[in-house]
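Field log, afternoon session.

UNIT: design team B
ACTIVITY: writing a sequence onto a fixed backbone
BACKBONE:
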């Protein structure tokens, strides 16, 4: 927390024109949680491994101790690459050696355990996120979290990292499975609710930042420019199909882009005032 406060203070020297925040006073950034802010790849891969192990154990129990499944456990790199290309879990199960009823059992197991509280500690803050959020906050940007994750979970995680205070609003769900299924319709409705609760928000003063097609489609439906991030669960090639306004590697890169859009004449005027 102390380091973050010091960084916010230093930003006033890095970007002195932020003292008035003329350009950003009405700018709202709606940001997704899983992907842009937290890295869920370890939890998703652990869920995959654990579910395969469970199916294998059940098979041995039913078929006798002498029989085993000939499974192909994917490496994390292989697994995550498939997820980034949005390969269905059923296809991932088949490529791992499961067949028939085993696949259905695997899918049920994944759904049951992926959001268990005991696994959530495996999520890690994405690199540069604290800097990115502090940068936008220091410029007077209104930050609104829009996530299909359970709102209580997202709030607790943000609080544990000392960055909850950087958000003006936090919008989440009460459905434990919503984040994993990641339906564009749900994300669009959630974004619509968030926009309605933000006064003076217009398409020319707002951005939607996310890492999946649901985020892009939600922003496009609401008439808001979108920034797709490739640090999450979708690859750049996949995201490009949905034609986001921009594509960036991570939230820090996207934040620097937004800051760079301040009109030069406003920057010059601000410099004059503080000299």
């Amino acid at each position: 927390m102390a380091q973050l406060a010091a960084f916010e203070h230093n930003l006033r020297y890095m970007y002195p024109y932020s003292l008035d925040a003329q350009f950003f006073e009405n700018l709202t950034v709606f940001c997704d949680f899983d992907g842009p802010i937290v890295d869920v790849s370890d939890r998703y891969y652990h869920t995959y491994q654990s579910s395969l192990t469970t199916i294998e154990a059940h098979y041995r129990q039913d078929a006798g101790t002498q029989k085993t499944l000939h499974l192909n456990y994917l490496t994390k790199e292989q697994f995550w690459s498939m997820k980034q290309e949005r390969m269905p879990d059923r296809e991932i199960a088949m490529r791992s050696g499961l067949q028939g009823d085993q696949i259905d059992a695997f899918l049920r197991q994944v759904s049951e355990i992926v959001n268990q509280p005991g696994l959530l500690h495996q999520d890690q803050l994405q690199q540069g996120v604290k800097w990115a959020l502090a940068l936008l906050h220091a410029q007077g940007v209104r930050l609104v979290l829009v996530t299909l994750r359970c709102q209580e979970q997202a709030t607790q995680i943000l609080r544990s990292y000392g960055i909850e205070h950087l958000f003006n609003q936090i919008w989440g769900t009460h459905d434990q499975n919503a984040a994993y299924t990641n339906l564009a319709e749900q994300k669009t409705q959630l974004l619509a609710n968030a926009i309605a609760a933000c006064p003076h928000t217009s398409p020319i003063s707002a951005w939607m930042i996310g890492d999946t097609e649901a985020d892009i489609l939600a922003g496009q439906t609401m008439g808001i420019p979108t920034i797709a991030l490739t640090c999450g669960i979708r690859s750049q090639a996949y995201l490009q199909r949905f034609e986001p306004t921009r594509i960036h590697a991570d939230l820090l890169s996207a934040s620097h882009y937004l800051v760079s859009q301040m009109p030069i004449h406003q920057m010059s005027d601000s410099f004059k005032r503080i000299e």
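LOG NOTE: Residues 41-63 form the longest helix (23 residues).
NEXT ACTIVITY: expression trials, pending approval
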